[in-house]
Amino acid sequence: MEETARWDREEHGIQIRLGGVTLEGSLEVPEDPRGVVLFAQGSGGSRHSPRNRFVAEVLGKGGLVTLLLDLLTLEEEAVDRHTGHLRFDIGLLASRLGGARAWLSHHPEIHQLRVGYFGTSTSGGAALLAAAHYPDSVDAIVSGGGRADLAGPALSRVGAPTLLIVGGNDAPAIELNRRALAQLQTEKRLEIVEGATHLFEEPGALEQVAHLACDWFTRYLDNAGQRAVHG
Predict the structure, then answer these.
(1) pTM of the entire structure?
(2) Cβ atoms 97, 106 nearer than 8 A
């Protein structure tokens, strides 16, 4: 990838510069990290979302580095709030996710660790598309209430083990994710959180999502004997 990236850090906030844009993110590195999970967020300042931060906290307690990254700039988000089209530009989101993954490979603390993608809504499709375009860059994927179907024909080229999670009361998402699951040719699983709707707002639902994701990422990202030293 020709785009270059560098990072700035103030407390836990970071900026990743990819070509002509600057993406905002939040990075947390636990002691003795077991892997890295890159949260792909398409719009709405999602790195500040209480739901995403809750999932990231659970993953962090499981020894996983978390990078919550907004794939759209503040200016693009402002436009998207009125048009809604950028959040569906899966190619754009996937390209930026690939650039962020390249940035991780140069991070001094965590560059040796395996990387997974966690996507929600349309960013679930972007995570899968990025995995298809850059198959050697990602080792596990979790889509939580995501539009995996938006990756289209690229689904058959995804090599990373993939977990799709949907709410049991979200019938449209169940059908779309079942179709996507059928196209995946890698290790895969569909988990249905009973009684939950699209955003997993019901009591205990988000906890189930977080723990399912943590188990999946821990299984496939744990670098036995190859852990980076947290300094």
Answers:
(1) 0.88
(2) no
Residue 73 forms part of a structural domain? yes
pLDDT in tens, 78-134: 776 767 667 778 888 999 999 999 999 988 889 899 999 999 888 899 999 999 998
6: in domain = no
**What residue type is 131 in one-letter code?**
A
The beta-strand segments (E) located in the chain are 7-10, 13-18, 21-28, 35-41, 64-70, 115-121, 140-146, 162-167, 188-193
Domain housing 83? 12-221
* Dihedral-angle region of residue 187 (phi above 0 means left; psi in -120 to 50 means alpha; beta otherwise): beta
Residue 159 is part of a domain; what is its CATH number?
3.40.50.1820
